[in-house]
Amino acid sequence: MLRRRDALRRALPMLAAMGGGIGLAACRQVPIYQSTGGVFPGRGTLAEREALIRRAAAAQGGWQVQPMRPGLLRATNTWRSHQMTVDIAFDVRTFSITYVSSVNLDDEGGRIHQAYNSRVQALEAAILRGGALSPRA
Questions:
Q1: Residue 62 and which of 75, 92, 105, 127 are 20 to 30 A apart at CA?
Q2: What backbone torsions phi and psi does residue 33 show, to the nearest 5 degrees?
């Protein structure tokens, strides 16, 4: 009886740490961020807006941008074993960034790993800055 109690006392801190680790991992999932209603700085044509978005994506690193149709780009960001794809819809005044798909980012029920939101928000900020080169957030 005494040995079992001692074994449980020794194992309890490890079990608590493992449970806490699992709980912290679950906290890394957040609601999927949708960038809507972004307003471009200054004036420009549709072609100039597309070029601005491409510059902003290049400034953030890891983004591959492909045209889908006028006013719609599909951008994919890949790092390590993770990948995310977004659609960037735009006109001459506004833009929005919407989730399309992801790999290894724990997408489940409208929630996703926080790295997705960080990268989308950094892309959004770069577009709002006018596509100027700057270090990634």
A1: 92
A2: -80, 130
